[in-house]
Amino acid sequence: MKTKFILLAFLLGTVMSVSAQEYQPQVGFSTENGSKVNFKKNKAGDNWFISLGGGASILFGDQNSDAKFGDRVNWAAGLSIGKWYNPYLAYRLQFNGGQLNNFSNLYGVQGLSNQDFMYGNAHIDMMLDLTNLWAPYNEKKLVRFIPFVGVGYAIRPAKTVDGFAFKRSESPSVNLGVNIPFRLSNRVDLFLEGEYSIYNEQFNRTDMGHEQDRVAQLLLGLNFNLGRTNFEVIEPMDYDLLNDLNSQINSLRAQNDELSKRPVSCPECPKIAPVVEKTESMKNVVFFRLNSSVIDKNQEGNIFNTSEYAKKHNLPVVVVGYADKKTGTADYNQGLSERRARAVAKRLTEQYGIPTEKISIEWKGDTQQPYDINNWNRVVIMDTNRK
Fold this sequence. Notes:
37% strand, 8-stranded antiparallel beta barrel
């Protein structure tokens, strides 16, 4: 029974420790499509951007289609600030607007009259970088394709044209389009952006029974990247090994559940004199990850159990550090196993009260491999009462 519980603790610790000993994180790139990769969350001040651009816009709706196309085009500008939360998802706040030419022959005016007016639109957009979502992420890509969609609110001031007073108008907006940045440097992109915005029918102050007014805008400008500009791929796990360990854990749990159902005593069987338990050696393990000698929180239970057992039976503790053989050089692994062993010995002494004279420290590097599975040898083994 005790053996099963020790093995269960051993496997639970291993699940949290399956990683390459000298894993090199993928920073600024991924080898799989972005949609299949988990990225490390950056700091709040990282991956921000500010964009500034200028270009042209055109108003669709009512009688504008009767005017010449060239007469309908006017200037536009845009300012954006946003943040990338991973290589393919960002949110931004954009302020865009300019002057729009609105043609109408209403109100007794002969022929088409240009009721040009200024407008401004503030909107929040969700941006999706398809080149990093459907393909491997690479911060040095020269061109990216980023559709966006958002909602906002637009205002056009009051204006008098040919003696007719047009009141101020406001409208919610739906904004969608595509942003295409061209990488100039790590900090600066040249971008081309096309945007299509939808407003209510009264936005241009001309009502001819259409469902909405629409504005198309084309901007060319510069995008400035602030803070950290890249992302780091979270270390991939060995899922085959994890599944195998989970299966073993579930099997042990099932066996423990079955044992717990058995009666405490058996009336039909003769009583057996209690056996005095002899003090035996107890081994416990501490697993490490990521080429590290830092003790994970999930390993503290094994160190605590070892210290309690050693203090209860007044036993010495032998602490032996190891490193796996398939990663790192022999000299490097020797030093790594020493750091691991000393970290565990320090924890036993400073946190759990085992006297230093009761602790022996050894380190084997990769010269000895206590386990057949390579990844399991990134370990410190604590042994009490060993002769």
